[in-house]
Amino acid sequence: MSRLILLDDERAFVDELAEYLLFRGYTVQCTYDAASFRAAMEEQSFDIAIMDAGLPDGDGFSLTTALRAQKQQIFVILLTARSRPEDKLSGYQAGADHYLTKPVRFDELSAIIASLERRIITTSWSLKLSQRRLFAPNGLSVDLTEKEFLFLRLLGSQANKTFDRRAIALAFDVEFIDYDQRRLDTLVSRLRHKVLDQTRLELPLHTAHGAGYLFDGRTVA
């Protein structure tokens, strides 16, 4: 299921919506102002942002524009009491994927999220945890060895975050001091060639020289 981040200064509404979405199986992060939203976005990655247009310390329009300028791979649903056509146009021009006026029907919002999820799976790399398979944007998939799976599961837990070699060794359940670094380099090289050979696409696995590795993909149950 997708990772969602909620932003609205109406705490009661956010908490009620979060409870509803958690019950439906989503991972949910609640934020109540623009500052905490930005902080959460820096710490981890999300698939869908659901945010109010009007905030005490900013607005959803400018936040959406900033996300697009940063080329964040995230879908945005704007919620607002502003129902004028020009307001909706401003939302879409800022880069929103959907624009809903309050009061929001949770079942309608859930249907929109499900629709966006289908686009996520078909437009990005995803690691299917239950199958231990990597799915490419073109629909082709790759069977992973245990080490390949553990490696991508760690990197996919926070897309575009660099994980150092110590963290990767721990994911393999071995002590860093005892781990042969050349084995990791060999694993990465073989994985890249394997994915390219089976999907005809280059794996978005990047080397941060002197720091570690990062993966521009996501994990799904």
Number of strands: 13
Quote the CATH topology of the largest domain: Rossmann fold
Number of H- or I-type helical stretches: 8
- What is the CATH homology-level superfamily of the largest domain? Response regulator
Q: What is the domain total for the residues?
A: 2
Strand content: 15-25%
The unreliable regions are none
Q: Helicity range of the residues?
A: 40-55%
Any idea of the CATH class of the largest domain?
A: Alpha Beta
On the 0 to 100 scale, the average pLDDT is 88
Largest sheet: 5 strands, parallel
Structural class: alpha/beta
Strand order of the largest sheet: 2-1-3-6-7
| H/E series | EHEHEEEHEHEHEEEHHHEEE
CATH-level-2 architecture of the largest domain: 3-Layer(aba) Sandwich
Radius of gyration: 19 Å
Shape: elongated
Descriptive notes:
- There is one protein chain.
- The protein is an alpha/beta fold and 221 residues long.
- The protein folds into 2 domains: 3-123, Rossmann fold (3-Layer(aba) Sandwich), CATH 3.40.50; 126-220, Orthogonal Bundle (Arc Repressor Mutant, subunit A), CATH 1.10.10.10.
- Helices cover 44% and strands 22% of the residues.
- The chain is built from 8 helices and 13 strands.
- The chain has helices spanning 11-23, 34-43, 60-69, 85-94, 106-123, 146-156, 165-171, 181-199; strands at residues 3-7, 27-31, 48-52, 54-55, 58-59, 75-80, 98-101, 126-128, 133-135, 141-143, 205-208, 212-215, 218-220.
- It has a 5-stranded parallel sheet, sandwiched between helices. A 4-stranded mixed sheet has the order 10-9-8-13, with helices on one face. The chain has a two-stranded antiparallel ribbon with strand order 4-5.
- Strand 6 (75-80), helix 4 (85-94) and strand 7 form a beta-alpha-beta unit.
- The protein starts with a strand and ends with a strand.
- The model has no long low-confidence stretch (mean pLDDT 88).
